Amino acid sequence: MSLTVLGDLNWFAVIVATIAYFALGALWYAEFAFGRAWQRAAGWDLNPPENTSAGIYTVPLATCFLATLATAMIGAASDTDNIMEGILLGLLVGVGIALPVMFVTGTYDMTKPAPKTFAAIGAGYHIVGLVLAGAILGLWT
């Protein structure tokens, strides 16, 4: 694979998949879903921060874009060209990369009260998010 694969990507699909992945995070980390458990596992105060700005969304959006772009590049290089192949691609990237990285971090992070719970919630988000991104990318090749 070379960087020439960037010219073969459906950039509209990459942007839509990035936004879907990012938006999933808003739901995933909401109080009614995993938000409170994630905050407890991180040892955070459960009160919302007083001074938040749009800047706190920049890093997650950028990382969703990078993960989606990498998934799209792998999809283009492997001729992923339908929704089922996209779902499988997202699942493989999520389970093969996001899950191990999150669990290594969770296993050795002694700064959190429940590091494995913290890692499991984060890994779950990335697996589901990458499956969603993969489905969009596979659908719109």
How would you describe this structure to a colleague?
The protein is mainly α and 141 residues long. 69% of the residues lie in helices and 0% in strands. It has five helices and no strands. The chain has helices at residues 11-28, 35-42, 58-77, 83-108, 115-139. Helix 1 (11-28) crosses helix 3, helix 1 (11-28) runs antiparallel to helix 5 and helix 4 (83-108) packs antiparallel against helix 5 (115-139). The model has no long low-confidence stretch (mean pLDDT 92).
Query: Treating each run of at least 4 consecutive H or I residues as one helix, how many helices?
Result: 5
Secondary structure: helix percent? 55-70%
| Main sheet overview | none
Strand content: under 5%
Quickly describe the structure.
With 141 residues, the protein is mostly helical. It has helices at residues 11-28, 35-42, 58-77, 83-108, 115-139. The longest helix is centred in the C-terminal third of the chain and has 26 residues, at 83-108.
List keywords for this structure.
141 residues, single chain, 5 helices, mainly alpha
List the helices and strands and how they pair.
Layout: H1 11-28, H2 35-42, H3 58-77, H4 83-108, H5 115-139
